[in-house]
Design goal:
2% strand; 489 residues
Length: 489
């Protein structure tokens, strides 16, 4: 029996580590767009849209604003699809399980990376399809990996946040591609290597992940993945779970874990928690997407077109993205801090989880306001601080989305609610392209007024933590009343 426990423990550790590496190296690469754009410009993508024009002093300058618009449009479409397709991805995951979702993710990701490898300045239009495919495949990798938090109950929120931080940090992959490109490695070679990594994803899908889901709460001696013969014979209690593609995930409750009446998907959808969470996500995500999508033009403006200085700042931005995986666990620790501590009399674990989430939601909203303020000030050296605040806020934001949904709603609806929330937020984020067009057009390239408007808009997410706080206080008040009534009787 002890040997079986050790094998299950080793498998869980391997699942956790390989999932972290997968999210860190592949899942969110599209958000390293600023680094990739620099490479694409060097290779001449959409260069036919640049033309000579007369500057203020009568000098001839190269106007590439139309080229920048094409790159901005690609990122707008990619970021929209990345979030909007989380809805069908969530339904796919909830309905068909891990294996089907991951095989689709691998197919889409491999196709996208091959399309970038086959693209060229003459075939620049391929990027409009390739980048969205990378985004959809990457978000499916993240969704199927976040359930690994269920294997480590006492650190569930921390692990979910850690994986989302790794998702953010994976944007630094495009920085590596940029540095390799400067060393003579072609864009085609880099993306062909990414395509070849699909073999690793396939092996991990069958050997280190369940066929359907990892349940929560976790049954005793829960096993999953393709198993060897010895694991089958260690214990008759887990025989059904340990041969071929396991079946323990199909029966998520044991006799020690009673079934309970859960909220319906409709009830969850119409709750004020979901509406508040949607507002919280939509506003902050728009601010981040617009910043990433316009980073190159902004730096060009602040450096007066000095490409070497722009490259230096883009490298600095990409390096800070690596820190997301270090920042994200802080948010998880904030949400898990009550675990292991005695709860208030009559307080459920669900209520304690909600109470713990208030500080996380508030800090995330506060970080967004500070980040937006720094991004609005047209000072080049200040952008280093902007980069730090941006990566800190993004790691809290994306970890907080999944962690809050996992504690506020039944786990059977996680994929659907996570998908629907990010999909609806994606519709709101389509405003980034009109904002970019407004800056380039009516505002003459000066984003100050748009940045001020977005900073004021960033105050709206504070509504969500306030709503959760008032709900928790109301529950505490009801418990006190019940205790007073019981004592007086």
């Amino acid at each position: 029996m002890q040997v079986l426990e050790n094998k299950l423990s080793v498998r869980r550790c391997l699942t956790f580590v390989t999932g972290l590496v997968e999210c860190l190296c592949f899942a969110g690469v599209v958000f390293g767009w600023a680094s990739l754009v620099f490479v694409l410009k060097e290779d001449g993508y959409f260069s036919s849209l640049c033309f000579n024009t007369t500057g203020v002093n009568g000098t001839q300058i190269l106007d590439c604003s139309a080229q920048d618009e094409q790159f901005s449009l690609i990122f707008t479409i990619t970021s929209f699809i990345n979030n909007f397709f989380t809805l069908p991805n969530g339904f796919l995951f909830d309905h068909f399980g891990t294996t089907v979702a991951r095989l689709l993710a691998i197919f889409l990701y491999t196709t996208g990376s091959l399309m970038v490898a086959l693209s060229s300045p003459a075939l620049s239009f391929l990027l409009f399809l390739a980048l969205p495919l990378l985004a959809i495949g990457g978000i499916l990798f993240l969704i199927t990996n976040m359930q690994i938090g269920n294997l480590f109950d006492s650190r569930r929120s921390t692990i979910i946040n850690l994986y989302n931080g790794a998702f953010d940090s994976s944007s630094a992959l495009f920085l590596i591609i940029k540095l390799l490109h400067e060393s003579g490695v072609s864009l085609r070679t880099s993306f062909l290597f990414l395509s070849a990594c699909s073999v690793v994803h396939i092996l991990r899908t069958f050997f280190l992940l369940p066929r359907t889901f990892i349940p929560h709460p976790l049954p005793d001696r829960y096993a999953y993945g393709v198993s060897c013969g010895p694991l089958e014979t260690m214990s008759s209690e887990v025989t059904a779970n340990s041969c071929a593609l396991t079946g323990a995930e199909d029966t998520p409750f044991t006799k020690d874990v009673p079934l309970k009446q859960e909220k319906t998907f409709r009830e969850c959808l119409l709750s004020r928690f979901f509406v508040g969470h949607l507002l919280w996500l939509s506003v902050m995500q728009l601010r981040h997407f617009l910043f990433i999508g316009t980073l190159n033009p902004m730096l060009l403006r602040l450096t007066d077109g000095d490409s070497s200085l722009v490259s230096q700042y883009i490298n600095a931005f990409a390096f800070t993205q690596l820190c997301a995986v270090l920042c994200a666990p802080w948010n998880g620790l904030i949400m898990d801090r009550h675990r292991g501590k005695p709860q208030a009399a009559g307080e459920t674990v669900h209520e304690a989880d909600l109470r713990a989430s208030v500080l996380s939601l508030f800090l995330t909203a506060l970080q967004c306001v500070l980040f937006s303020l720094c991004a609005s000030i047209p000072s080049l050296p200040l952008q280093y601080l902007t980069f730090i605040l941006q990566v800190l806020n993004r790691s809290f934001l994306y970890g907080g989305i999944a962690a809050f949904i996992s504690v506020a709603f039944p786990s059977c609806h996680f994929g659907k609610l996570y998908g629907l929330g990010t999909s609806l937020a994606a519709l709101f984020c389509l405003l980034q392209y009109p904002c970019f067009a407004l800056v380039n057009g009516a505002l003459g390239g000066d984003p100050l007024y748009v940045n001020i408007s977005l900073t004021l808009l960033s105050l709206l997410p504070f509504v969500h933590p306030l709503s959760v706080y008032l709900h928790c206080r109301k529950l505490a008040s009801l418990r006190d009343k019940r205790k007073t009534t019981a004592f007086s009787s």
